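Table S5 (text form). Sequence records supplied for joint modeling of the three-component complex.
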Amino acid sequence: MIGQPALEPATAAPVLEARDLVKHFTARRRLLVPALAPLRAVQGVSFQVQRGQALGIVGESGCGKSTLAKLVMGLHEPSSGTVLLDGRDVSEIPRTEFARRVQFVFQDPYSSLNPRKTVRQALDAPLRHLAGLDAPARRARTAELLDLVGLRAEFADRYPHEFSGGQRQRVGIARALASTADVLLLDEPVSALDVSVQAQVLNLLRQLQQELSLTYVFIAHDLAVVENLCDEVSVMYLGRIVEQAPAEVLFGSPRHPYPHTLLSAIPTGDRSQRRLRVAAPAGVDGPAGSDGGCAFAPRCYRVEERCNTHVPPLSAEPAGHPVACHFADDTDPEEHAG
Amino acid sequence: MSDVRADAPDTTALLAVRGLRTDFVVEDEVYRAVDGVDLTIGPGESVGLVGESGSGKTVTAMSILQLIPDPPGRIVGGSIEIDGIDLVRAPERVLRQVRGGRIACVFQDPLTSLNPVLQIGDQLTEMMRAHQDLDRRAARRRARELLDAVHIPQAERRLAEYPHELSGGMRQRVMIAMALANDPELLIADEPTTALDVTVQAEILDLLRELRERTGMSLLFITHDFGVVAELCDRVVVMYAGKVVEQAPVEKVFADAAHPYTRRLVDCMPQLGEGRKDLEVIPGLPPALNRIPDGCAFAERCDVAEEACRRGTIALEGYGEDRLVRCIKPGARP
Amino acid sequence: MSASTASPDQTPDDGVVVPRRGGTTWRRLKRNRLSVAGLIVLAIVVLLALLAPVLPLIDPAATNPANRLQPIGSEGHLLGTDHLGRDLLSRLIWGGRTSLSVGVFATLIAASIGSLIGLIAGFFGGATDNSLMRGIDVLMAFPYLLLAIALVAVLGPGLVNAMIAISIVNIPFFARAVRGTTVSLVASEYVDAARALAFSRLRILFREVLPNVMPTIIITMSTTVGWMITETAGLSFLGLGAQPPTSDWGAMLGAGREFITRAPHVMIVPGSAIFLVVISLNFLGDGLRDALDPRLK
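The corresponding C-alpha cell record, covering 969 residues in total, follows.
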C-alpha cells in the first residue's frame, strides 16, 4: 500500500545517514550594529538510522536539533557535510524523489497546516504529484489515510480550525504518509499537545511504525517521550552530539554528564524516588563559540583543567558507544556529582 | 494544614474561593470556563492546580487576580476572599493594592510579562514604589537584593539590562523577583516552567521551594505536569471542564487517585524507565464548555461510568479523611 | 475499554463542537453596525449608478440657461440645477457611474500590480526583495497627489490617464501590506511542509501563500478605494481628470466652486456624495478587517 522504492539496500545499511553536518548562520550585517560572530548551530553531527528503527535526538532549546532536522530535510542548506539516503548523497537525488521517501511532521499542529485548505486538499497534492494517483484512487487513498491515523473519513472536507490540536497532528501525519514516504522526521510532534492527547499520538506513531515499517528520526526535549518511542538516542549539546546509545543504555546509565544532568532534572512525580539533582550552574546558557574545550564544561559537575582546553572527541572507546567526554570510562558518574 | 475542607468555612485560610463561576460569552454562546470552584489556601501552604488546557485552571487564577478580560469574560458568581476582603466586589483601588502586593503572580511567558523597553532595575523599582513608600535609592538597593535572592549572578549589572538580553530562565527569575518585591502572602504561578528547558525548570523549582521556606508565603502553582506538582506542592486540586474533580494530599494522588480522571491522567504520562510500550490513553476529548453535559462531565470518557453518572449534579464530597472527590464511584477500577 | 488509539470509533471528536466553516466572515461582519450601514449605503449608490440608463432621468448634458442655479427641491429638479441649468440629480447619478468605476478599476489595477510585487518581494526575499521594495520606497518618497498630477501632466489630461496615475501612486500601499504578510507566511510551517513535499516555488506562492494573503489584499482594497475615489475627484476638480462633456463628482465639485457663495448646493451635492461614499467604504473596511482577521477566529 505504501509504495516502496524498488531498490532494496543491503542488510544493515542505514536508510538515512548524516555525515559530519555543519551549519553556520551568519547574521546579516546591519548599519550601526557590530557584526556578530556566526552562530554555529550544528557543528559536525553524524548519525545513522536503520530501516524500521526510531532514532531519538534530544537536547534543550538552542542545541541545534531543529536545525539538524531541517538540514536533513533539505529545508536548510548545510555549510558542509552530507546526508545520504540508502547510501546516495541526497544532493544528487531529485527533489520529488526525495519527497517520496522522506517527510516531515512539525511541532505546531496549528501552523503546520494551511488554514485555507481542507484536509482533502492538503492530502490531494502529495497524492497526485508524489504518489501519482488518479482522482478515484486519491479519493480512496484519502479515506484510507484518515482511517490509518484514526480520523473519520467524513472529516476530509473540514478545515484545520475545525479540529483539535491532536486531530491536526494526525492530519499532519497523514499528509506525510500521503507522499509514500517511509522515513519520517518528527520535530517535537507531541510537545504542543495536552498530556492525554500526547499519549494518543505517541501510541499512533508507534502503531504506524510497526504496521508500515517506518523509519523515524524523532526530535524532542522530553526524555520520557523519547524513551517511549525510540530504539537509539543521540543527545545534543550546543550543536554537537555528546552521547549516542541504545535507549535503555542511555536512560539507564548515561556516561556523559550532560544526559545525566538532564535525567536527574526531571520532576519524577514520585517523591519516594526522587533522583539526585545535579547542579547545573545558571547564567551560562546560550550558544557559545568556544573552541577551547568541552562546551558543557561551564555547567559540568566534574569539570577538570583539561575540559577547558581540549574538546573531547566523540568516541566509542571506552564506553562501548559514542561518548564525547574525557571521563567516558567511568561507569558511575553519579558518585562524582553534587 | 493540608486538611483544609472546601465545604466548611475555614477561618485560618489565607485565600478562600467559594462557588466561583466565570463565563466567557463569544458570539452569543456562553462558555462556562469556571463552574463553581471552591478552593482554599492556608498560610504557608503550597497548592497545585492541575488540569489540561480548557479545564479552567488558568481562568481560576485570572479570576482570583481579577484579571479576566471583560468582555468577553465575566465573573458571574461566587466570592474570592482574602482576609475578609471579597475581591469580586472590591473596588479597583483595593484590587490594585492586593495585586502585586499581597498576591503576586508569575506567568508562563516572562517575555510578554516584562516591558521590553524598560530596564530590569526600573521595572523592579517601579513595582515596589507603587506599593511601598520607598525613595529611589532604597528601592534600587532592594531591587539588587531581590536579584540576589533569586540567584541572578552579577545583579548590579543585570539591573541595567533589558528583558531581551536575558535568557528564558533568567527572565523567569526576574519575574519571580518582581513578584517577591512587595513580600506577597500568596504567589500565583501559572505554568511558570512550561516554556523552560528541563534543567532550567529544575533550577526554578528549587528556587521556588527555597523562597517558600524562607518567606513562608503560600503558593498556588498551576500546571499540567504532575511531576512538577509532586516536587513542590502539599496538596493537589484537579480540574476538569471547569469543575474541581478531586482534591487530595499530593502523595495520595499518585498512589491511589480517587477520581477516574485523575487516575487516568496520571497513567497516560510516559514515565522514564518504562521503555517502549503503549501508553494508557483517555479516549475522546473534554466536552465543549458551551455544551457541558448533565451529571459528570467526564462520564463520556470514563471507564467506570454508569447510567447514574450522566444525571443530575454530582457534588464534591469528602473521601477518606483528607480528600474531596466529585464522583459517585470514587476509587472504582474497571 | 481498551486503551489503543486510531480506531475510528474512538476518534476524539465526539465532544468537540466546532463551527462549520461558511458564513462566519459574513456573520462577524454583521455584528458591526457601522459597516452594515456602510454596506447598505454603498449598495444603494452602486444600484443607482448601475440603473442610471433606465431611470427616468433628465439628460445630464441638457443645458437650460434660463433655469440656472435652481435651489434644491425646485420644480422638476429635486437637487436643483447648476450654472448651465443642468439637472444636478441626473448629473450626480451619471457622475457617480464615472467616479465609482474609475475608483474600482484603479483599485483593481493597483491591487493586482502592488500585490504581485509584494508577493514576489516577500517570497523570494534577498536581492529581489531589496530592489523591488527600494523602487516602492522611491514611489512613496513623493507626495502622492503631486506625483499623480505629474503623471497626468506627462500622460495628458483625461479620465483614463487620471485612473492610471491614481493606480500607480497607490501601488506602494498594496506592495508593502502584502509583502509584510507574505514574509510572515513564508516562515510558517505549512510552507515548510509544502517545500518538504517538493512543491514548485510557483505552486507554493500561488496555492499556499496567496490564499492566505487574500484577506490583507481585500482589507487594503477596501481602505484604499475610498482614497482613490477622492483622489480621482481631486484630479477632476483640478481639470486633469474627466473632460467635458463627461463629468464625475470631482469635475462637478470643480465647476461649482465659482458659485460657492451664491449657490452653495452646486458644490454641496457632489461633495456630500463623495463624503458619503468614502465614509461608507471606510466603515465597511474596518468591519472587513475585523471579520477577516484570522486571529479573531
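Note: The first helix of chain C runs from residue 24 to 30.
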